[in-house]
Design brief:
Elements: H1 2-21, H2 28-31, H3 36-41, H4 43-47, H5 60-63, H6 74-85, H7 99-111, H8 122-130, E1 152-161, E2 166-175, E3 177-182, E4 192-194, E5 199-204, E6 210-211, E7 215-221, H9 225-228, H10 230-242, H11 244-248, H12 255-269, H13 279-282, H14 294-298, H15 302-306, H16 310-318, E8 331-334, E9 340-341, E10 357-358, E11 362-369, E12 372-378, E13 384-390, E14 408-411, E15 416-418, E16 430-432, E17 437-443, E18 450-459, E19 462-469
Parallel strand pairs: 1-7
Antiparallel strand pairs: 1-2, 3-5, 4-7, 5-6, 8-11, 9-10, 11-12, 12-13, 14-17, 15-16, 17-18, 18-19
Length: 474
Amino acid sequence: MDLIKTLLVYMTVLLTSSTALAPALTPIPTVNPTPVPVVTVTPAPVFTPYVPVPTFAPTATPILTTLYVGDRGENVRIMQTRLKELGYLTGAVDGVFGQGTLRAVRRFQTYNNLAVDGIAGRQTLSKLYYDPNVVFAPVDVTPPPTARPPVTANIPVYYMSTAGERLYTEVLTLSEGRTTVRANSSRVPQGYLLTGASQAMVTVSSSGTVSPASVTFTYSLQATTPPVTPTPTLAPTAAPTITVSPTVTPTLTPVPTTEPTVSPTSEPTAAPTAEPTAEPTAEPTPEPTAEPTPEPTAEPTPEPTAEPTPEPTAEPTSTPAAEVPFLPDYQTLRFREGVYPVYSGPGEHYYRVENATLGGGTCRLYGAAGDWILIGYGTTDGGYRIGFITKAALPDGITAAELLLAYEPHTLLSDAPVNNDPVISPDPFAELPAGSTVYLLAYFRDNERYVYVEVPDFRDGQPLRGFIRADRLN
């Protein structure tokens, strides 16, 4: 019995000791959750490097095409979007590479350690689009330029005769923009009549480039004045010969008195070489009735009718001159290595067809207009294009003669497709409606069905030069 009590006491002690030790084991799981803050720290650095990376995926070919001031199109718009995203462009995204975009490109080049030239070339565009370390624009504390000095340029105006003689030369100072230069006929000597165009449209670009580089007005010597002066001189010489017939008629009756009167009258009329041989033989030998009669009727009649008639008809037929020239013959050469934008006219303010660019190869050189040269070159698609590039592309030792172009207004008789390839495969890029006014510049020697014209206001105020069919002109 005592043994049983002892076992019960022992079991009770064991149970109480086990329950006393159980609380000591509970703190162990509470120590493990302490590393949780380490997980929350890692996401922060993951998102910060992707802030400057562009959110769009541009195609490589159009984006890396060099862009200049004056360019237009989707490539310019994409560049403006990225410059605005980085904080460099404050103006509108309009697809026009103007002064505001030029300033944004220069600031971008400055803060990204690039050559500051304002030209969005391959290096600048690669940095702009694809470099994750591109520098965002700092706060722009410099106000944009509000005004610039006015741009002026000088242009020579030549007054030429149809014979190639320079009658007068003057130099006009024109402001930026377009100015109509009109011929001043008081500058030329009297007797000259204007036969060419009476006015020309001259454009001065923002860089001071003049197009065309000079203006020429053509005059011809009037044909009506020279024939008028000899006509009165012929009349007095013909009058004495005609009056011989009345003087001969009264001398037929008194024979003795006829000899002294005829001799003085025959001597002054003998000054012309036609009469001395006939009159001396006629007077002494036979009677004076037969011989004086044929002489006055034969000589005076043809002289007044023969001389005045051909002279006035010959001169006027020679006065009309070729007012519109042909484009000059070209020379073939390779220009300096580089990439040159091609404009339809001599200046960045002229319309540029499909961002035309010359990258090399053998080309044709037609002539120069100020700081620009007219060239012809083959395109990558097998076509041909004629347009203007900067004169800086000329290699050393090569010169280009100044282009002499007319500026003759015409009205289109029907719709006229415009193209810049009249040589190989004319491919129109625009069409002018009937009734439009164009200015005829030159005929095209390589394909006489086409003429070279200028449209003063083609699109958004930009002038355009190109080729249209000659039969579309009035």
